[in-house]
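Pasting two entries for a bug report.
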Amino acid sequence: TDSCIIRVEEQGMMIDGSKDDQARNRVNPCLAYLGIDHVDVALNTHPHYDHMTGFIDVMKQAHIDRMLIGGSENVNWVVKQAVHRLREDGTVVERVHDGDVITFGPVTMTMIQRLHTDYPINDTSVMTMIRYRDCSLFMTGDIENRAQRALYTEPPEIDLKCDILKYPHHGHVAIDQTLYGILEPELVIVTAHEYPARRGFAFLKRYDTPALSTWYG
């Protein structure tokens, strides 16, 4: 399940909504358990079904005030369908850009995106650096080799060092070693079972970095 729920006092943000069955079976029960029936801001990192279609089911549990997307809402049927249903439910849909910052009380969320015409969709993912006082969480979407390199060849203005890292693309690819040396995470979260993410877990084992799979909740 690729969906992250961030709660700050009475405000909430979701990064990706997973896919429809995962939203019904995992995300919505989690929202209900936490008592969340309203999401202030949701972000879709990139227009793939396993990150976007779940928002349609999330709406049955929690109203979404604002939906941020990292590209055209007409890019494919996945985004078109979700945007249409969100607007029917009263959600405001907005385009987010590299460098945009959202603030929830003491939390800041800085958007990072590398857009090049020759990049595949995964590499255009909107990444999010989330900071709470001295703690940081870096959400990387599904970036692969090109966008990973671009993070240090075209660095953002903010520091990329983080305490917690959401492993890129479900752990399916190795992280660029130069980038990993910049990130220096103390904990890594992999949004996949250990078997399909075996390359990612093997990479982290070499660096002796603790890692958790979201497969078990």
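Entry 2 (this is the one that rendered wrong in the viewer):
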Amino acid sequence: MQFTVFALSTVPDTATTRRLLGLDDLDDKAVSKVLFHRRKQQTGSSEVLRWDQRAIASLTLIRYSEQGVQLESLTAPQQTEEALLDALFQAASRSSRMVAWNAEDVDLPLIRFRCLKYSIGLPEYWQTWSHAAETHIDIARWMCDSATDRPTLDGIARKLGFPGMLNRSEQTVMDAWLLGAQDDVRAFSDISALNSYLLALRLFAVRGEISGQESAVALEQLRELLAGDVPAYFSEFLSAWGGP
């Protein structure tokens, strides 16, 4: 069996907002404030952006296979958004399943919309997606199909003994992006993917699709990866990890 977990960090789509509203004289921070204000006017209370008001700033992929665990992180502006989408599709072409947390509500609509924006075509991927029920597995949707009062990834992960988001949130992503702190933008998608990967291993073990031994080996491989020469927040994640 093989699968790939993916997670995104998203930020305000300032380029589109600037063009549509004629805000060429404003920087990204000011344009973001305009976008948040307009969103609050739309909702009446919340500034949380809808998926079509966002852009992809970071992508993390964690692949499970017989060869072991592989982790890949890509972050803008070192990589264009088109490159991030291409990496996601390349990962999908190599894996029978793509796994994420709560992807159906935000990530997949955003991915489809950005593909329309850049006219990115990958017919074989879309055809496979439309005909295979489990090409994408949304762990949150698998647990509870209702979107009403759904728990967060942080809450579920910590209740199962996993590290959770380590005080990272979409707001910390926004703040880091506005400050140009790309490592902190990447940290959100990395930590989201790590928690989702731990949940996926537990899910597939419970469903009998991988054995207890295979799960234990994968967990040890992940521990070894996190203990290597990697960003400091990987060590933070490993320290917070209470056990297999």
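Dev reply: Rendering is fixed now. As a check, the viewer should reflect this: The first strand starts at residue 3 and ends at 12.
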